[in-house]
Amino acid sequence: MLGTSLSFDPELGNVLVAAPSGMQTPFWGEERNTSEYLDPKWVAERIMELANEPLKYCYAKILRKPNRVEIIESRK
């Protein structure tokens, strides 16, 4: 809701809300098997692709099994 609200502010540029679902980072420590989690480099590449889209607002889920990007809401 915050991202949507911000996108209506004429003072701001484009708003991108990206929600990755579990990434292979040290955050998880040794307690969790992250072998099926998303590769951070792959996630960063998807975010840069989304950021280059000519959209005023975009909410995207970055999912795994299979790895994919789903645009939930967007507006030009």
Q: What this model shows, in words?
A:
By secondary structure, this protein is α+β, with helices and mostly antiparallel strands. The chain has one domain (2-75). It is built from two helices and three strands; from the N terminus they run H-E-H-E-E. The longest helix has 12 residues, at 40-51. It is elongated. 11% of the residues are buried.
Output the number of helix runs: 2
Uncertain runs are: none
Strand order of the largest sheet: 1-2-3
Q: What count of structural domains?
A: 1
* Mean of pLDDT: 94
Number of strands: 3
Order of helices and strands: HEHEE
Q: What characterizes the major β-sheet?
A: 3 strands, mixed
In short:
This protein has 76 residues and is of the alpha+beta class. 24% of the residues lie in helices and 28% in strands.
Descriptive labels:
76 residues; alpha+beta; three-stranded mixed β-sheet; 3 strands
SSE inventory with pairings:
Blueprint: H1 2-7, E1 15-20, H2 40-51, E2 57-63, E3 68-75
Parallel strand pairs: 1-2
Antiparallel strand pairs: 2-3
